[in-house]
Amino acid sequence: MSHTIALSAARRRASAPFAALRAVALTLLMLFAHGASADPAAADQRLAITKQNFTALKQSYTIAKMQLQMGQPTPAGVSFTLAKAQAQQMVANLVTLRNDNQHTLDNGLYLNGAAQQQAVNYTDVAKSLAQQLQTRLMILSIQPTSQLDLVLADQSLTQLTLKMTQLEQAMIAAQQ
Questions:
Q1: What is the DSSP string of the chain?
Q2: Is the pTM of this model over 0.85?
Q3: Which residue ranges make up each domain of the chain?
Q4: Among candidates 86, 82, 84, 102, which has minimal Cα distance to 51?
Q5: Distance between CA atoms of 174 and 76, rounded to whole angstroms?
Q6: What class is the 38-174 domain?
């Protein structure tokens, strides 16, 4: 009987390194799985930042237009400059968001692949529209009374608003 107990204790000691190795492997697997699932969350967080940036851009643009209506082109130029800087930041945020969405697509971290691909495409279009808006705002910061550029900026802003809504909806649909 003591021989059986000694043999059993020896087996447990011999298997201890394997148990430790298994525990390390499981821990690494759990860490990897946790990191992989964080990608859509990173994209969601970047979308929230981009939306906040877009809201600030629209506010600055609205203030600039109000200043123009009140006959104050110089302060309007300053407000357009601020809106241009916010558009520039939005472009940078959309580049990061596009990379996050592409990474999510490439790594299969979605439930609806077609919606995830749409999110990538909408991000590309939104970035292009934000760049167009940035260009119009740059012109308006120099020539705040340019009616053509005001109309074109309004159009870009309207299109960008629609694309941001579609982008958000696609990102939500990709995870459902």
A1: -HHHHHHHHHHHHHHHHHHHHHHHHHHHHHHHHHHHHHHHHHHHHHHHHHHHHHHHHHHHHHHHHHHHHTT-HHHHHHHHHHHHHHHHHHHHHHHHHHHHHHHHHHTT--S-HHHHHHHHHHHHHHHHHHHHHHHHHHHHHH-TT-HHHHHHHHHHHHHHHHHHHHHHHHHHHHT-
A2: no
A3: 38-174
A4: 86
A5: 40
A6: mainly alpha
pLDDT tens, residue by residue, 91-118: 999 999 999 999 999 999 999 999 999 9
Q: How far apart are CA 93 and CA 51, in angstroms?
A: 10
Can you say whether residue 52 is alpha, beta or left, with left for phi > 0 and alpha for psi between -120 and 50 degrees?
Answer: alpha
* C-alpha–C-alpha distance, residues 108 and 127, integer Å: 23
| pLDDT tens digits in sequence order for the chain, 176 residues long | 555 555 555 555 555 555 544 544 444 444 444 444 446 899 999 999 999 999 999 999 999 999 999 999 999 999 999 999 999 999 999 999 999 999 999 999 999 999 999 999 999 999 999 999 999 999 999 999 999 999 999 999 999 999 999 999 999 999 99
As a whole number of angstroms, the distance between CA 106 and CA 74 comes to 48
Structure tokens at 8: 């059993």
Residues 131-147 pLDDT 10s: 999 999 999 999 999 99
